[in-house]
Write a structure and sequence with these properties.
16-stranded mixed beta sheet, mainly beta
């Protein structure tokens, strides 16, 4: 009888151990060091008690005991993502970020048809983004940013019609942005910056009318900025800087009335600054520097009462600095250097009491430095060197207690040329 009970006990123990070992999550345990961080994560067949993975730290299960969420954030977690993860068929959320996972993203993750959110950002993952992820038609959020992923963005991602957030920035992705991506009309955020993407921005981008953030900067994109961008009327944040874009800034930007940030710097844009920018009264940051823009600075920019920073340096702008800029009382930074601006420094700039930096150097400005600049009590940096300014440096500027840097050299000023 005792022998019979021992045989039964051994059979049950082996069966239970087999259940543990065949749980798909055990593949992840075997391929990472998760067990050293969370000791309850054990699939050891020799353990005296069989633990339920639903009780493990970072795991949630549904009402029938299937894993529905996996959420791990640990700077100490390392290893690879096992192919067995693709057998967690009931899972709706995977969040394994801010860790040290390396290796590839297994294509078996394309089997997780219930998955709604996938966060693998801030790891050391490499290799391609699996085209099989295009099968995850329930997916709403895909964050693979801050890894070492390479290769193209596959057109299969254009099948993710429920996708709202696509974050692939700071990887090594190359090739063009697939046209199928512009079919994702539910997208609210599209972060593709800091990659090696090339090709043009097609007019189809205008179909993404739910977009709130479009950041494509620091890639190798070329061609013109499509006029259809003006369809994105809900867009607060637009960053296309540090690419190879050329041609004019389309006048259709006047429709982007929700825009807070406009970053177009570091391209080859030409033509005038559209006066239509003056209609975008929510704008806080305009950065158009380091392009080939020409013509005057539109007086209409004086309507942008919320503007905090105006950066137009290193272009071919000409004509006077508009006195209307003196209406921008929230303005903290003005960068107009390295242009062909002429005429006097407007005394109206003395009304910019929040101003911290004024850089007007390397232009053709003339006449005297207005004494009204002495009212800029928060001014920290004042650069007007390399112009044709004359007369005396107003003594009141010496009373600006926050002023740390000032350079008025290479002008025709009388007296001591101050360089702080």
């Amino acid at each position: 009888m005792l022998l019979f009970l021992c045989i039964i006990f051994q059979f049950v123990s082996q069966s239970l151990a087999s259940i543990v070992l065949t749980d798909p999550i055990c593949g992840f345990v075997a391929s990472t060091n998760v067990e050293t961080i969370y000791p309850e994560w054990s699939c050891n067949p020799n353990q005296t008690t069989v633990t339920n993975s639903c009780d493990w730290e970072g795991i949630k299960c549904n009402h029938i005991g299937d894993i529905s969420e996996l959420m791990l954030v640990s700077h100490s977690l390392s290893g690879t993502i096992s192919a067995e993860m693709g057998e967690l068929f009931a899972i709706t959320r995977i969040s394994i970020r801010d860790s040290k996972l390396d290796g590839i993203i297994p294509s078996t993750l394309g089997n997780l048809v219930a998955l709604q959110k996938l966060f693998l950002n801030n790891n050391d993952l490499s290799g391609p983004i699996p085209s099989a992820l295009g099968s995850l038609t329930a997916l709403q959020t895909l964050e693979l940013n801050n890894n070492y992923l390479s290769g193209p963005i596959f057109s299969t991602l254009g099948s993710l019609l429920a996708l709202q957030d696509l974050n692939l920035f700071n990887n090594r992705l190359s090739g063009s942005i697939p046209s199928a991506l512009w079919n994702l009309t539910a997208l609210q955020t599209l972060y593709l910056y800091d990659n090696y993407l090339s090709g043009s921005i097609p007019s189809a981008v205008g179909g993404l009318t739910a977009l709130e953030i479009l950041y494509l900067f620091n890639n190798r994109l070329s061609g013109s900025i499509p006029s259809a961008l003006g369809n994105l009327v809900a867009l607060p944040y637009l960053g296309l800087n540090d690419n190879y874009l050329s041609g004019p800034i389309p006048s259709t930007v006047e429709s982007l009335t929700a825009l807070h940030i406009l970053y177009l710097y570091g391209n080859y844009l030409s033509g005038p600054i559209p006066s239509a920018l003056g209609c975008l009264t929510a704008l806080q940051y305009i950065e158009l520097n380091s392009n080939n823009l020409s013509g005057p600075i539109p007086s209409a920019l004086g309507s942008l009462a919320a503007l905090l920073s105006l950066d137009l340096d290193t272009n071919h702008l000409s004509g006077p600095i508009p006195s209307a800029l003196g209406s921008l009382t929230a303005l903290q930074y003005i960068f107009l250097y390295n242009n062909n601006l002429s005429g006097p420094i407007p005394s109206a700039l003395g009304s910019l009491t929040a101003l911290q930096t004024l850089q007007l150097n390397s232009n053709r400005l003339e006449a005297t430095i207005p004494a009204t600049l002495g009212s800029l009590s928060k001014l920290v940096h004042l650069f007007v060197r390399d112009n044709m300014l004359s007369g005396q440096i107003p003594t009141i500027i010496g009373d600006l207690t926050d002023l740390q840097e000032m350079n008025v050299s290479s002008n025709e000023l009388l007296g001591k040329h101050a360089v702080i």
